[in-house]
Design a protein that fits this description.
This protein is an alpha+beta fold and about 240 residues long. The chain has 2 domains: about 90 residues, Elongation Factor Tu (Ef-tu), domain 3; about 140 residues, Threonyl-tRNA Synthetase, Chain A, domain 2. It is built from 4 helices and 15 strands. The strands form 4 sheets. It has a 6-stranded antiparallel β-barrel with strand order 2-3-7-6-5-8. Helix 2 crosses helix 3. The longest helix is centred in the middle third of the chain and has 21 residues. The protein is globular. The mean pLDDT is about 95.
Length: about 240
């Protein structure tokens, strides 16, 4: 099992960890600050360092078997033997942009107010697909509404509820294509007071003002019941 330190503190940039396994698939640690790809958010990149200057370049982070998180190594990187103590350090600039965009997509979900059928994000842009049979939104009004919510500088917070509590509140689940992970006894929620509350395992900024100004760049009709809305960070 890999302890997911990013769920406890998304702003933590590094940690000391012990290698549990290392092979051609990558390195598994007992704990990590590296976010594993999921929910449309890319896996973190960065480095693992140990010993007298040895360094492994992490090009991706993926979920492995069970609760393991696999740090995918760049070709040619040395592998630390099991039991080695390493320093795990993420590419913070890239991660922070992911945090900003992921939080922005929560605001977009609240502004549009329709079920979500898919989504994806990068360090520069993101998109959500909505179950919208009619063209009821436009780029200018969405951009204005998003930047107004960002300017509120609302605090975000993580909450946890039990599987049974989530079953009793099906309205919290905004996504049609991906169900929240169950089986661990509790489900992680992201709360933006008076704006959005829904299950999410990603990383987010502490306040919406940290997102900065954004711009809706495209609205596409992907099918009869699906519209894709793309947004980007202005910087």
């Amino acid at each position: 099992m890999t302890r997911r330190l990013y769920e406890e503190d998304a702003y933590r940039r590094g940690c000391e960890a012990t290698v549990l396994a290392a092979d051609e698939a990558g390195v598994v640690l007992d704990q990590t600050v590296f976010y594993a790809m999921g929910g449309g958010q890319p896996g973190d990149t960065g480095v693992l360092r140990w010993g007298d200057g040895a360094e492994l370049v992490v090009v991706d982070t993926r979920k492995g078997d069970g609760d393991a998180i696999v740090h995918v190594a760049a070709e040619g990187s040395p592998l630390p033997p099991p039991g080695t103590t390493v320093q795990a350090v993420i590419d913070w600039d890239r991660r922070h942009r992911h945090m900003r965009m992921h939080t922005c997509l929560h605001l977009l979900c609240a502004v549009v107010g329709a079920p979500v059928t898919g989504g994806n994000l990068t360090a520069e842009k993101g998109r959500l697909d909505f179950d919208l049979p009619e063209s009821t939104v436009d780029k200018a009004s969405l951009t204005e509404a998003l930047n107004a919510l960002i300017a509120r500088d609302s605090e975000t917070a993580v909450q946890w509820i039990t599987d049974e509590e989530l079953d009793a509140r099906p309205e919290l689940v905004k996504t049609l294509s991906v169900a929240p992970p169950r089986g661990a006894g509790r489900v992680r929620l992201l709360s933006i007071p008076d704006v959005d509350l829904q299950p999410c395992g990603g990383t987010h900024v502490a306040r919406t003002g940290e997102i900065g100004r954004v711009r809706v760049t495209k609205i596409e009709k992907k099918s009869r019941l699906n519209r894709r809305i793309a947004v980007e960070l202005e910087d």
